[in-house]
Every structure is written in structure tokens, then in C-alpha cells.
Write a structure and sequence with these properties.
This protein has about 325 residues and is of the alpha+beta class. It contains three helices and 13 strands; from the N terminus they run αββββββββββββαβα. The protein folds into three domains: about 70 residues; about 60 residues, no CATH class; about 110 residues, no CATH class.
């Protein structure tokens, strides 16, 4: 009995062990299945993450390409703008070169005109000096027939304060009809019409005046230095030009000269009624010619007054 009981116990125990083993196998199988499921889930998650990263990377690349395209577009626009500005600068540079060429040509023309005017003034002054020398020569030849005033028959003429005797100059002898001789360092002349006397040596400066219809100017030189001819180029508000405008600007009463030359044209008269009369006076030299009255310009004042006032203003320069 004891053996049977032991056998039964062992058999029962074996049966229990087999069942437990079976259960363990089932549990192991379940665990493997769960493990497989977990592996699949894990792989799927990694794949999704990888897909998301790839998608983000593609989007980033696309953004970079768009940004690069925008920068290229901006660069292209800037390049076109720079080309346009460069073309404009080239045209401006070309215009500046043309203007500089015209300006240089204008300067050359002015220099040529100045040289021509200087040549004309020089010729006129040389003619005047030549005529003056001829007059002196003729007067020296006629000194024997010059009559000395009775007020000073044997008295040497007294020079004015501005006249000084030349230290190395030979005295000039002047004989009257009574064969009286007067020695002096000056050429003594007698004006029969006025009864006054003057000296040839009083002439220190020779002036050449070019009084024109629209422009006027003058040159001068010292008799002692006839080669040094000076042409005036300094006028009111006008420097560097050899001539100035032959124009006058009077006050409202046309009595006093307010301005002349270029400044007289700087302010044109207003068309209002109270300023119609105040206009520049010009072209008054035409009244000296042989034009018919209908061709001569109408002036608000007498042309003689205009000429006198204009020459008076030139004399103040």
C-alpha cells in the first residue's frame, strides 16, 4: 500500500509538473508573441520617426531652395538696376564731356575774340600815338611862327603841380615874331581861339573808347610805355569780359542813373502799371546815325542825356 500510495503521489506530482510545464510553455509562447508584437511596434515607430525626419529635411531643403531663388531674384533685380544706373552715368558722363568740349571751345572763342579786340585796340592806339607824334613834329616845325602871349613875353611858363621837368631832356626853343627865344623843358602851345596855353607833355595817357550800340569798352596806355596796352575787363557785376552792355537803368523819374551795363539788364521791368515806365534805356546810339525817325528806337528820355550819362558812368570805372 505504501508503494502504491507513493506511486500515486509521484504520478500526481508528475502530472502536475507536466501541466505546469505545459503552462510554462504556453506562457513562453505568449511572451514570444508579445515580444514580437513589441518589436513590430518599435520598428513601426522608428520608421515613422524616420519618415518625419526625412519629411522635415525635404522641407528644409525646399525652404533653402526658395530662399536661394529669392536671393537670386533680388540679385538679378539689383544687377539690372546697376546696369540702368551705369548706363545713365555713361550718358551723363558723355554729356559732361560734350559740355566740357563746348566750354573749352567757348573759352577758345573768347580768347580769340579778346586777342582780336586787343589787336584792334592796339592798332587804334598805335594810330593815335602815331598821329600824336606827327602833331608834335608839325608843332615843332611851326614853333617859329607861334606867338607867345603878351602876358608873359619873356617868362618861362610855370608847370602845373602834376608836371615835372624831365632831368635829361633837351629844352625846346620857342621863337616869337620879335625873335625872342624862350627855353623850357616843355613844348609850349598857344590856343588862339581860347587864348589859353597848355603843354604837349601834359598828355600822359592815351585812351581808346569803343562806344557800341549794344556793347562798349575801352583800352588805355601810358605815353611813356606805349607798348603796354591795358584793356579794361572789370565792370559792375561783370568781370573778365572786355566789354559791357550799353544799357542804362534810371529811377522812376528818369533823372538819376541807378545802374548801368549788365546790372541794368539783371532786373527786367514788371508788367504792372506802376512799373511800366521803369524800363532799361538802350540802343540810344542809333540816334547818332542816319536812320529815319521811324527806325530809331523810342526812348523815354533825350538820347543826348542817355549818351552823356553812359559815358559819364564809364568815366568812373
Amino acid at each position: 500500500m505504501n508503494l502504491l500510495e507513493k506511486f500515486d503521489k509521484l504520478n500526481n506530482k508528475l502530472t502536475n509538473l507536466l501541466e505546469e510545464n505545459k503552462e510554462l510553455k504556453q506562457q513562453n509562447k505568449n511572451l514570444q508573441e508579445e515580444n514580437q508584437v513589441l518589436k513590430e511596434k518599435l520598428n513601426e515607430r522608428d520608421y515613422k520617426n524616420l519618415q518625419e525626419e526625412i519629411k522635415k529635411l525635404k522641407q528644409h531643403v525646399l525652404n533653402l531652395e526658395n530662399k536661394k531663388y529669392e536671393q537670386l531674384e533680388i540679385t538679378s533685380q539689383n544687377l539690372e538696376e546697376y546696369k540702368r544706373k551705369y548706363k545713365i552715368l555713361q550718358e551723363e558722363n558723355k554729356n559732361l564731356n560734350e559740355r566740357e568740349t563746348q566750354f573749352q571751345q567757348h573759352i577758345q572763342n573768347l580768347e580769340k575774340q579778346k586777342s582780336e579786340q586787343l589787336e584792334i585796340f592796339s592798332q587804334n592806339l598805335e594810330k593815335a600815338l602815331g598821329k600824336l607824334e606827327l602833331d608834335e613834329s608839325d608843332e615843332l616845325d611851326e614853333e617859329d611862327s607861334v606867338q607867345v602871349p603878351k602876358e608873359a613875353p619873356n617868362k618861362e611858363p610855370v608847370p602845373t603841380p602834376l608836371q615835372k621837368k624831365a632831368p635829361n631832356k633837351e629844352p625846346v626853343s620857342i621863337k616869337s615874331k620879335s625873335n625872342q627865344t624862350h627855353s623850357s623843358g616843355y613844348s609850349y602851345l598857344w590856343n588862339k581861339s581860347s587864348g589859353n596855353s597848355f603843354y604837349k607833355n601834359d598828355i600822359r595817357i592815351v585812351v581808346g573808347l569803343d562806344f557800341g550800340t549794344t556793347y562798349s569798352g575801352f583800352s588805355y596806355c601810358h605815353v611813356a610805355d606805349s607798348e603796354n596796352i591795358v584793356t579794361n575787363d572789370k565792370w559792375p557785376e561783370n568781370f573778365g569780359n572786355l566789354k559791357t552792355n550799353t544799357v542804362l537803368q534810371y529811377d522812376c523819374e528818369y533823372d538819376k542813373v541807378e545802374s548801368w551795363g549788365l546790372p541794368a539788364l539783371a532786373k527786367r521791368p514788371n508788367r504792372r502799371k506802376n512799373e511800366i515806365r521803369k524800363r532799361p534805356v538802350e540802343l540810344f546810339k542809333l540816334h547818332l546815325g542816319n536812320l529815319s525817325d521811324n527806325l530809331k528806337p523810342k526812348l523815354p528820355i533825350d538820347y543826348k542825356k542817355a549818351i552823356s550819362d553812359y559815358l559819364g558812368e564809364i568815366g568812373k570805372v
